[in-house]
Amino acid sequence: MTRLTAFQRVVSQYADIADFLVVYIEEAHPSDGWVSSDAPYQIPKHRCLEDRLRAAQLMLTEVPETNVVVDNMDNSCNAAYGAYFERLYIVRDEKVVYQGGRGPEGYRISELRNWLEQYRNDLLNSQTAILHV
């Protein structure tokens, strides 16, 4: 949650060239488990999908311009993308073109920003026309 402000800035800055999606996975620091002293919210471990959906509503308030979805209770998205605790990806034409490091240490919003900036420059320098309908 603490990095969402920087992520929200990237969303706003690059909304013209990218769609953004947040996948809310299992809670990294549940209030009834391994508690983080700087957690802005007290979220208990999700016992059912409804618990996870309620927690994801908080995330949606933090990143209102972004689509937020939730992983299932089997955590299959988390397992498939190695997201625990947090991770940044760019998927283009159904292929992963950027895979950030695992958070919190490997989570680098600056790498995401650099990739998107290079992509924007490539678009501007190409002959491809972008139509917004």
From TrEMBL:
<dbReference type="InterPro" id="IPR000643">
    <property type="entry name" value="Iodothyronine_deiodinase"/>
</dbReference>
<dbReference type="GO" id="GO:0004800">
    <property type="term" value="F:thyroxine 5'-deiodinase activity"/>
</dbReference>
<dbReference type="GO" id="GO:0042403">
    <property type="term" value="P:thyroid hormone metabolic process"/>
</dbReference>
<comment type="function">
    <text>Responsible for the deiodination of T4 (3,5,3',5'-tetraiodothyronine).</text>
</comment>
<keyword id="KW-0712">Selenocysteine</keyword>
<comment type="similarity">
    <text>Belongs to the iodothyronine deiodinase family.</text>
</comment>
<protein>
    <recommendedName>
        <fullName>Iodothyronine deiodinase</fullName>
    </recommendedName>
</protein>
<dbReference type="GO" id="GO:0042446">
    <property type="term" value="P:hormone biosynthetic process"/>
</dbReference>
<keyword id="KW-0560">Oxidoreductase</keyword>
<dbReference type="Pfam" id="PF00837">
    <property type="entry name" value="T4_deiodinase"/>
</dbReference>
<keyword id="KW-0893">Thyroid hormones biosynthesis</keyword>
